[in-house]
Amino acid sequence: MPNNSMKNLSLGSLRSKQTGIRIVSFVLFVSVITFVLFQGTKTPIALSANGEITELSTHANTVGELLEAQDITVSNYDKLSPSLSTTIVSGMTIEWEQAKEVTISVDGNQSNIWTTESLVKNILEEANIDVAEHDLVSQSLGTEVGADNKIDIQKAFQLTLVDGLKERQVWSTSTTVANFLKQQGIQLHEFDRVENNLEDVITPNDKIAVVRVEKVTDVVEESVDFAVEKKNDSSLLKGKEKVVTKGKNGIVSRTYELVKENGKVVKKTLTAEKVVIEPTTKVVAVGTRVVTASVSRSNSESTSGGKEFYVTATAYTPYCTGCSGISAAGVNLRANSDIKLIAVDPNVIPLGTKVWVEGYGYAVAGDTGGAIKGNKIDILVQTKTQAQSWGRKKVRIKVLN
Questions:
Q1: pTM to 2 decimals?
Q2: Got the DSSP string for 163-218?
């Protein structure tokens, strides 16, 4: 090939390359200018999404278009400011807070609420749930709800607590009797008991009773009654008694174990006994001598040395009102119809004395009477007619022995 042809071919190729470079440079220049012009026409705004703020520039015309461009879907429960239809303006701030579902349980009854609130108290206010002073809430009202988005509430109710002798009304939430006592600071000692089952769940208006039980030792000195011993004494008339030795109570020390419930003794057990002073037995002589109802003629006729004086004499029968038929000397007056006996004042004529009574004969002083005092006697007859016939008279009496 000639040299001129080769030269022309090289020049043509060079011009083509230069032309391509110019075209590429121009396109790049136009693209840069276009990008700069595109970016320069965007509107700068600030987007706060769940508390995180991002600075943005956008060609969106409305808040809704902007959020859609950011792949943010707004639910009916979300909090958005301004609204979706608001026109974008330079420098505006858009706040979006996504709602979360919170489960609220009140005494086991569950309900769900969608909310953008984070504090427990605000969530409960939004749900129209009142929390009283004694209610139990799973989280403090001033804290943020936990990651599980659950709030548990146990409503408090009143019941009666009886601790020993003290009774009061208290507030509590549903729990067992054992836990309730622990909450109330009730300590049970060794012998104390609770009237309720500790595992039972308490309910409104229940009555929880704690019985305070204590065992104590009590030592007391107590009187011991003396014994009475009776001995027959033939020197005394039958029916008469005479104290030979006076009785005296002893003293014994007794140890008791006392069981008290709420301060009241419910059980008393004797555990030890020791005699401090022995009791003195009372000895009583009991008369056995029976007065002889008849008086022998030979003895009665011997009047030497006998005391003689006048007395006022009345008469009575074994069957008079209030009469037992047994004389003070133990003579059965009704069984001895032929007996000769008079009632006397023992201070004047001792019982058992043989006497002679004017108009009555020989007799024995074998009875007494409430009205027979001093120089008075009452002669025994068998019938009321005989007693009325005797009447009241002054007679001479002679003491024979």
A1: 0.50
A2: ETTEEEEEEE-S-BHHHHHHHTTPPP-TT-EESS-TTSBP-TT-EEEEE-EEEEEE
